[in-house]
Every structure is written in C-alpha cells, then in structure tokens.
Amino acid sequence: MPKQKTHKGLAKRVKVTARGKIKRGRAGGGHLMSSKTSKRCRSINKATGMSPAMAKKTLTALGR
Hints:
Blueprint: H1 8-11, E1 14-16, E2 22-24, H2 38-45, H3 52-61
C-alpha cells in the first residue's frame, strides 16, 4: 500500500497547533479593503479556527 501524500496546497494555507487544532486565515482580505470598515479589516487579518467536521477532513488531507 503506497503512502498517503500531503496536500501541499492545503499545507501552505493552514497551520496545526501543538494541541492538534487548525488555524486558518479568513477570506476577503485580498483586495478592495478601502471599502470595508476598520473593524472588519482587523477581523479579516486575524487567524481563526476551524469547525470540528472540517478539521477532521483537513487533518486527513495533511496526512495526520
């Protein structure tokens, strides 16, 4: 049985914490930031967690 490969595109976008949780960036911060409120911009710039269901699929794709 061959080894499972790490999904490199996903590996570049998420980080796994020491306790196994997944940190990801928020969507919407690529462009058109001047039309968004300062509060919204600060929120977009912060990393956030991931739902348990999505985290399970993500860890599988990362080979963990």
